[in-house]
C-alpha cells in the first residue's frame, strides 16, 4: 500500500544560529545519521521553542528512525502551533499505517480530506486504509475517485481489482484485471485472482489459461490449483481435472472439503467405487451436507444397489427438512416402487404430487402402486382420470381394465353380483382383448340370470381364447342347464365352479403392464407384425405389435421392436418412449439400454447416451457395439483418451472386419 510523507511546509524566519543547526540536521539526515540530526534539532528548539519547521523536521526524522510515538508527539506540537495545516495529517496517517493502526490512520486521512479537499491524492491513502480494514465497498468508492484523476496508476487499479474481488463483485474485478493484463501482460502478476474471478463468473474456458499460469509460477498455490481442477471439470476435461486433483491431494491430503467435487468427477468418469470412497470421506467430515448423500445415492442407483440408494436418499431428505428437493423425493419414490415396497412408494408419490399436482406419469405410478396394494377402487379412479387426459393411452387403458377385472373378481367371490357385473362391463367397454374378462362377466350375468348376455359373453371369451377348454366346457355346461341350443362343439361338462384365474400386474414404475397366459394369440400377433415389418408395412407392424402388447404389456422385446420402427422413421420422441418402457419392464435389458443410448446420441445428448452405454457394459461386458458407441460419444465430447480406450476395447470384442478397419483408422487419426 502507498504512504505519503509531508514534503515540507513554508519556512519561517530563523536566526542565523538556529538556521545553522537546522542545516546541520538536514545534512545528518541525508547521511542517515539520525541521532545527530535529532541532537541538532533539539539544540535548535532550545533556541526557538515554537518553530513549526523544526518540529516538522524532527517528526520526520523520528519517523525515519521508526520512533513513531516520538514522531507523533512532534506532529502533535506542529498541529498545536499551526492548527490550520491539514497536510501534516498525511504524515500522521502514514505513521499510523506503518504501525498497522488503520483506524487511526483513516481518522488522520479524513482530516486531510476535510481540511485540504483539493489534495486528490488523499483518496488513494483513504482507500488503502479502508482496504486494510476490509471495508471494501468504501475502498472501491475512493479508489474510483482517485483513478478518475490518475487513471494510469496501475497499483491503485490493482488494489481496486482486489477490492472488487474481496467484495464478491467478480465481474468488475475481472474487468479491472483484464485492463491491467491488456495494458502490460509482461508485468501482470494477478493470474490467480484473475483466473478465480473468471471461474466465479463461470467463464471456465477463459479462466483455465490464467489459472494454469498461476500454478506454473506458484506450484503451491492451492487455491488456484483447486479453481483450475474445477474449471477443467466443468469443461468436461476430466483427465486434466483428475491430474490436478492428484497434485492437490499430494500437497494437502487432508483437504476433505474437496472430496465432494472429486467424487463427482470420478462418478462422471464411471469410476463408481472410487467415487463412493471419496463421498464417504466427505460425509465423515461434513455429515450435514445433503448433497453428498444424494450424489452417492445416484452412483448406487447406477450400480442397481437399491437399498444403498434408499438409505442415502432418505438421509439427504432428512437434512433437507426445511426445503426438500422434490426431484429427489420423486426418485426415492421410484426406488421404493422398484423394490416393491409399496407403502413407502405411495407415501413419497403423495408428497411429490402435492407439488406436481398435474404430473401425468406421477399419477400413473401412484395408480400402479395402489393397484399392487389391492386398493383397486383408488387405482381405478386415477386410471379413469388419466384416460380423460389421454384417451388413447393404451397402457393406462390396459391397467384400468386389469384393475376392473380383479375388482370384479373380488365382488364375484363375495357374491356381490351387481357390482361385479358393473366392473366387468367397464373392463370390456375399454376394448380389452382379455378372454378372461368376458368369461368372468359371463359368470356374473349368469348369477344375475341374464342368460342371453351370459351366452354372448361366453362366446366372446371363447372367440378371444379358442384354446382355453375351461371356457368352452363351462359354456357347454351352461347350455345344458339353461336348455339353450349349443352353438359350439362342447366337451365334458364341468360341474364345479372353476378356480378363479389370478390377474397379475407388474408394478414397476411407469408403463409396466400385467401379464396373462394368452401366449398363442400374443405370438401370432407378433409373428404378423414381424411379417409386416419384413414387407416394410411399418404402420401395420406397429398396430400388430401394439395389439400383442394389450395381451402382454410387459413384453420388452415387442416394446423394443416398436421403438426400432419409430427410430427408423426418425421419430425420436416415440422411439424414446418405447425404449424407456422396455427398460422399465426389464431394467436389465441390455438391448433396450443400447437402443435408448443411440436415440440420445442422435439428439446430441451425449451425457445421457454415455450413461446408457455404460449401463449396457455393466449388464453385459461382452456387448461390443456398446464400446463402439461409447467411444463415438466421448469423441464428440472431445475426450480423446476415453474415446481411444473404448475403441480399443471394441476391437477385442468385434468380429466384423469391415467395422474393425474403420475403427483402426479412427484410432490412428486420434493418436496423431
DSSP strand count: 0
- Number of helices in the DSSP assignment: 36
Mean pLDDT: 88
State the distance separating the first and last CA atoms: 51 Å
Query: What structural class do you assign from the helix and strand content?
Result: mainly alpha
Radius of gyration: 42 Å
Beta-strand percent range = under 5%
Give the CA-based shape: elongated
Low-confidence spans: 1-11, 483-508, 510-518
> What is the percent of helical residues?
over 70%
Largest sheet: none
Description:
The structure is a single chain. The radius of gyration is 42 Å and the shape is elongated. It contains 36 helices and no strands. Mean pLDDT is 88; it is low at 1-11, 483-508 and 510-518. The chain has helices at 16-30, 34-47, 52-65, 68-81, 88-99, 102-115, 122-132, 136-147, 154-166, 170-183, 191-200, 204-217, 222-234, 238-251, 259-268, 272-285, 290-302, 306-319, 326-338, 342-355, 360-372, 376-389, 394-413, 417-429, 435-447, 451-464, 469-482, 519-534, 538-551, 556-568, 572-585, 590-602, 606-619, 624-636, 640-653, 657-671. The protein starts with 15 loop residues before the first helix and ends with a helix. With 672 residues, the protein is an all-alpha fold.
